[in-house]
Known about the structure:
The chain is mostly helical. The chain has one domain (3-224).
Amino acid sequence: MPYRRLPNTNQARMRALKAAVDMGDRLEDTYDLAFSYGSLEDARALLVRYERAMGEYKQCSVKQVETSKKFQEAAKMARLYLSHFVQVLNMCVLRNEIKPEAKKLYGLPVDSNVVPDLISDENLYKWGALIIDGEQKRIQGGGTPIYNPAIAKVRVHYDIFVEHYNNQKVLQNNTSRTISNVTSLNESVDKVILDIWNDVEHSFSLLPLPERLHKCGEYGLVYYYRRGEARVELPTDSGEE
């Protein structure tokens, strides 16, 4: 015999609520409803809130995805220019054009020519500010500016990255907040669905299995077959009055 399984995704919860509410709307007499009128009212109220919460989450999620490509392009350029600048700085140190101690201004180790890890966006954000600030301090102290790339060019691409970085953080927070709103409703939604499905199964419990599964399916109940289990042939509507 197939077994019932409650919804375990947000979309499945939405479908279960809609199926129950739609059945309540289709029946002219609520006395014909296979579950309680109180549960129907609860399902209607929750459906409105759940649809709104899901809609807000989808809107925020889509916006985040749409802006992600431009953000990644900005990060790529900032990473390229910062990495190139540090490599040129190290070469200047090796050629004795800049004293090794000056690297401390950038937060860089004096005894290493390794470029900082710029792979993560957080590291790129941190090191970009340190490198730009360090170059300004060195120039203010009388040092000769580094060219190709000049720090002004590096700053342009870094500032573009920072703008996208901050915007992406806002979008991520919005997406996190809206999915939390959805999640906070799940317990109430699951309880209503469980009450409705239990009532529906009880209402049709005396029917033969094929008809019972068919009737329950009209209310949105979902059944699964175990591996190798024979499927129950459900009755079909003839379309006759």
